[in-house]
Amino acid sequence: MTAPTQDLEGRRILVLGASSGIGRSIGLRASAAGARVTFSARRLPELERAVAEAPGPALAVACDATQAEDCARAVDAAVDAFGGLDDLVYATGMSPLAMLEEASAEEWHRVLDVNVVGASLMTAAALAALRESEGSAFYISSYSVRQPLPGLALYRVSKVALDGLIECWRMEHPDVDFTRVVVGNTQGTGFADDWDPDRLNRTLKIWVERNLFPAATMMPLATVAESLVRILAAPGYVDDVAIMPRTRDAAARPR
After folding, report:
1. Whole-model pTM?
2. Domain that holds residue 90
3. Is residue 64 part of a domain?
4. What is the mean pLDDT of residues 37-47?
5. Residue 246 half-sphere exposure, CB side, CA atoms within 13 Å?
6. Within a domain: 252
């Protein structure tokens, strides 16, 4: 992996959702920029493979972000390993594929637990360490907040709630920087790996019929990771930022 030009030398970063997709890519890119990275998610073998690939000091910590005890343990492990914590990156996320009328209570609870409750539990666990280092917390939001689609309502609602959660953390703790990172369509995230094929076929038909197909332009994981490393390395506070696929179509650019 070619080292990015951004300098994160010595920064201590905890990445949640780091076993695959955006979180893993961010962790590896930050490591290449000189950061000491704690890779955390539920799947320990995948975390250990990421740590083996990381070019700098790195740690794998299994964590279910929906469990407060796991969040506290992950933060403690990161602080013990690297002497503190400068940045928290919450890249954990999931999306059921379901129309509202067929969505189960279990699907609702799961998407809100992972995308919203987990973000708050992890922030609470990391707050003291971030306050001590005058650090920052970053949350991966989604362009779906601006572009609702049939079948992805549960995901969109959870990301709208995440945006509100970030605002509330800012209000309660102005001494810590909280950054919302809106991410557009990205390849290789595993976002749709668990979708039911029958539901997917029905949903695709609706998207095509209504000319709503969401993935006209995609960007690679490396683009998201490199962009976030630039944000991490920025000297000032970035409160909200969007990382979008490059397009020369003005109508397709975010407004």
Report:
1. 0.89
2. 12-244
3. yes
4. 95
5. 4
6. no
